[in-house]
Amino acid sequence: MYAESIDSIRFSVVSPEMIKKISVAKLAIPDTYNEDGYPIDGGLIDQRLGVIDPGLRCKTCGGRAKSCMGHFGHLELIRPTIHPEFARLVFMIMQSTCDNCYRVLVSEKNIDILKSAEDEQIASMAKLKSVKKCPHCGAKQKKLKFERPTFFYMDGERLKSDSIKDWMSKISNDDLAVIGIDGDVVRPEWAILGVLLVPPVNVRPSITLENGDRSEDDLTHKLVEVMRINQRLEQDIDAGAPQIIIDDLWELLQYHVTTYFNNETPGVPVARHRSTRPLKTLSHRLKGKEGRLRYNLSGKRVNFTARTVICGDPNLSINEVGVAQTIAERLTTPMHVTLWNIEKAKELIDRREYPMATNVINSDGVRKRVTESNRIELVASIAPGWIVERQLVNNDVALFNRQPTLHKMSIMAHRIRVLPGRVMRMSVNAATPYNADFDGDEMNLHIPQSIEAIAEARYIMKPTDVILTPRDGSPVMYIDEEGIVGAYFLTSSNTYFDKEETCSMLAYAGVSEMPEPDKDGRYSGKSIFSVLLPKGLDYEEKGGAVIIKDGKLVEGFIRKQTIGSGKGLLLKKIYMDYGGEAVADFIYKLTRVTYMVVYAKGFSIGVKDYLTNQNIQRESKKIIEDTQDKAREILESYKKRSMEILPGYSSKETYEMLVHAATGNARGTGVKYIEKTFSTDNMAFLIPTLGARGGIQNLVQMLMFLGQQSVRGNRITRGYSGRVIPYFKKNDRSPEAKGFIASSFMDGLEPREFYMHAMGARDSTMGKALVTAVSGYLMRRLIHALQDIYVESDLSVRNAAGDIIQPIYGSDGIDTIYETL
Amino acid sequence: MEIKKNEIAYGEPVGVVTAQSIGERSTQMVLRTFHSAGITSEVVSAGLPRLIEILDARKKPKHPTMTITFDRKMASDYESVKEVKTKIEEVKVSSLLGGFEENLKAGTMVLDMDKEAMTMHSITVRKVMEIISHRFPDVELSNEGSSISVRCRKRKEIKAVRTIFVNIRAEMISGVEGIEKAVVNADGDLFYISTSGSNLKGVLEVGGVTQENIYTNDMFEILNAFGVEAARAAILNEMMQVFAIEDTKMNVKHAMLIADAMTYAGTIRSIGRHGLAGDKESVFARAAYEETIKHFVNAAFFSETDRLRGVAENIIIGRQITVGTGRVKLMIKNKDLEKIKAED
Fold this sequence. Notes:
The complex is a heterodimer. By secondary structure, chain A is an alpha+beta fold.
C-alpha cells in the first residue's frame, strides 16, 4: 500500500555522514564467532546488526529473527579506498577540472551558457578532456591517465586515493553543476570511501550444516577480508612500517573492496572461496536473469495458484476449464460481505464440507482461519465489510496460462467446472492459442482476488473475448482436423440423415430445435448445419463458394477457409455480428455435430490409400529423370561458364543455388501430379485437400519420392572430402550424391538415402532448438522497448514520458482485430 | 457508428500487442535464409536474421541491394537500361584480369587483361592505364598488346610493393563505389536493375536514374539521403517484406508502430540496449533490462530521479501498471455514494 503514495524515487550516493547515521555499530574485529560459538561484539555477526538464530533477540530493536528487519553497521577504512564502480566517473571529473585550482575547465562565460541548457552532462565532459589550459588560473593541464579498475596517473605518476579524494572535495558545487552533478545531493568525494556500510546479518545469513558447522555467506567472507587487511594496515601504520609495505597493504585493501562490490571487475583477479568457487558479491546479487531485479522485483510470485497436467475434454466449452476437486477445495475466492449476501456468508462459514469458507478477513484486515472452534463465534460476529474466502465452485472465474507466454492469448479467463480426477481439462479448441497439446503438458491456474481483477477476467479475458488475434485479425480458436472432415461430410451435397440420426446428432450438440425435413422425411446435412448457425446470419465467401442467407446454408460446402485456421471467415463474421459468446456456442455445437457425423458415416484411412500404381511409378521415374537432366544441364553450363551468375554470389554458389532449386522443385512437380490425378474418394488425399491435416507433399513423400534433403539451407555436402559418404565417387555432383532421395516411404529408403534423410532431420531439429533462443531474446528486447507504449484518450500513441509516437494509432485509430487481411 | 465501435480502446497497450504479435511469429521463423520458393535473380536476405537486422538498426545490412526502376518509356528499352547498368556496376582492375604475374623482389607486375571482360564493360587498355597512373604516381606503366606491365619507380620493401600491387588490382575503373554487381531483370516487358551492394547517393548521380524510382534496403542510406520520414517508410517496408517472404500475415499497424517508435526522435534508434530500451527515462526500467549496475551507478552519481511512469518500474515498486486497465480508475459520484449510504 505504501507503493501507491510514492511519487518518484531519487538515486544518490550515500555520504559518510549518512553512513554513520544509519549505522548502529562500528565494527572492528575481522571475525564472526568466538570459540563458544557466540557472536563477537564488534565482529561481523554483531548482534546489534540483527539476529538470524531463533531464540535470540536483536540488541538494537529487541525483535526476534522474524520481526527484526536488520540494521546496518559500518567500518572505518584506515586509508581511503575508491569505490570501483564510480572510478570511471571520478576520472571524468578529474578530466573536467583543473589540477591546480580545481575549477571546472569552462570559462565563466560558457558556464552561464551551459547552465541555461539542461542535460548536457557527459557530452560536455567529453570535450573538456582536450582543454590544455585552465581558463581560470591559467595552469597548464597535466596529462591524466586512468587504468582499470582503480589506478590513476598524472604525468605518468601514480595518484593515490587520498589525493584524489582531496581533489574531489575541492570542487565547488557551482562547478559540479556544470558537469551535471547536483553537489547538494551527491559530492564526488563520496565515491572515495572512508567508511564502508556493512549490511545487516539477515542480508548475508549464515547457514548451519548438518554437522553443526556454520558456513558464512560470501559477503561475510569478503567483509572479513576487508576488515583483516584494514586492521593490518592500521597496525603497520602505527608501527611506522616502511612506505612500501603500507602501499602494498593499501592496494590489497583496495582489491578487497573492489571485489566486495563487483567480483567481475575487468582487470581484477576473481576473489575465490576456499573451494576455488568464485565469490558472489554485491553486483552478482543484482545482475542478470537470477539477479534481484529480474528474478525478484520484475518477477513476482503469487498465491492462489495451481498447476497440473492438462487434458482435452470435448464436452467443455472453450470458455470453461475443468478443475479437480482437490484444487477447488484448496483455492479460494473472496466474497465481500454485504447486507444482501450475509446469510449466504454465514451459511458458508457454518459448513463443514466442500463448498465452505476457509478464512474470514474482518473489517480491520485481519485474516482468521475458520476452524471447528471459532466457527460459531465467527458466524455471530460477521458483518458487512468483512471478506469471506470460500472454496471454488462452478462458474467462478480463473486465469489459465501455459508457458511460454508468447502472446496475450496465453493467459485467458475460463469458467471453472469442478470435475473428478486430478488433471485440469479444457476444450480441445481452446488449446490452439496456448499452443498446448495433451502429451503431458502442464498449465497454471490463477484465481483473481480483487473485484477489479475478477471483473477484468470475466468481461475482457474470456477466450471468446480474445478470439481474434490483433496480429492479423484472424481467429485463434477454430475447428480443425476431424472437425473439418466432419463439416465436409455434413455439408457436401447428397448427405442425408434420417430422423433418428439427426435427433441424436443435435441432441449431442445440445440443440433442441429440429430443421424442416428436406425430402422423404430425411434431413440434409446443410439443413442440420444451418440449425447450428446464429439466427438471421448472412454470409458469402469470395466468388460465392459458400453462401449463407438468413441463417441457412444455401450454397457450397464448409471448408478450412470458412471455419479453420488462418482465415476462419465465418467465425469472424459471427464474432462481428453476434459477439464472442455466439462464436463459442457455434464452435461447441459444430465440433460435437461433426464428431457425430464422422462417427455415423465412418472415416478411416489405411495402407490401401497409400498404395502406388504403375502410373504413379512411371510419373515418379519421369520426374526424377527430369530433375537429373536439369541438374546435369546446369552443371554443364557451370563448367562451360555460360551460366548467368546471380548478383552477390560466386559462380559456385550460383550453381549450387540453381541445382538446389531444381531438385527442390521436384517435389512441387509431384504435388501437381497428385493433385491432378487423385480423387477425393481417396481418404489419404481428402485430408490434405480439405486442409484438415498435412499437405499433399506428405503424400508425394509416401507415394512417389522423398525429394531433396537439405542441411543449413543447402544440399548435403558435408562428410568426407568431395563426397558425403564413401558410397559415392569423389566429386560426384549428381542429385543423389548430394541428398536427393528417389525412394518413397512406401518403397523404403536405401541405406545411403536413409543416411541423408537423417542428416536433414537432425538439421531441422537443431534449427528449431536454436531459433527458440534467438527469438526469445528478440521478444524480450521488443517487449522492453515497447512496453510503455499505449493509446491515449485522443487516440494518439504515447510512451511513458508522454512523447507522441503516432498522432493517431495506425493512422486510422481502428483496432487491428477488426481488420481482415 | 461502425467506426466508433471498431476504434482502439483507451489505454490499450499497443506496444506490447505489437511486440507479442511479432515476437510470437518469430518463434516460427527459420534461422537461415532459404530459397525454397523458386529462384529469383534478386538476392533477398529474409527470415529471423533479417528481422533482427532491421530491429537492431544495423549500420550496414548483410546483403545490401538496390532496385532501380525506370519510367515506362525507358524501362521497355533494354539497351538504355543496360547502359545504366554498365554505368553503375563497379568494375575493378581485378575483374578485368585474365591473370597476373608479380615479382615482388623486382617490384614488377604483369597484368594480363581479359579482352572479353574489357569489351563487356566497354573499357580499353589505355583507360585502365590512365587510371592506374593517375592514382599511383609511384609506378611506371607500359603495355604490350592486351597486357600491362607495372614497375615501381623506387626500390621498396617487399611488403610495401605488395600493398601497392594489391591496391592496384583493387582499383576501381568505372561504376559506382559499392555496387558490386548489377543485373537487368524483367518484370513483364519492363526492365529494371537490381544490384548487390548499395550506394544511394552515388547511383543517383548517374544519368537516367531518378529519386522516385530508386530503392535500397539500407535504411541508413535512405535516412541520410531523404530524411527520417523516408527512413520510417523504409523500415516499415523492409519489415513487411520479411513477413511477406515468410508467408506470414501481419497487420501493417504493428510494423508501423515499430517504425514510428524507432524514428520518432528524428533519427533511427534500435530496439535494444543501445536504442529504445536503453534510452528510457526510468532508471529502474533500464536496470531491469540490461547493464543493471551501470544504470544504477550513473543514476546515483548524477542524482537521477525516477518518475515511475512506465510499466517496468511500477511492477518493481509493486503497484498497478500504467497501461491498459491499470490506467483507468473506478469512480463514484459523491451524490450516489450518499444515496447508497442513506439506503444502508
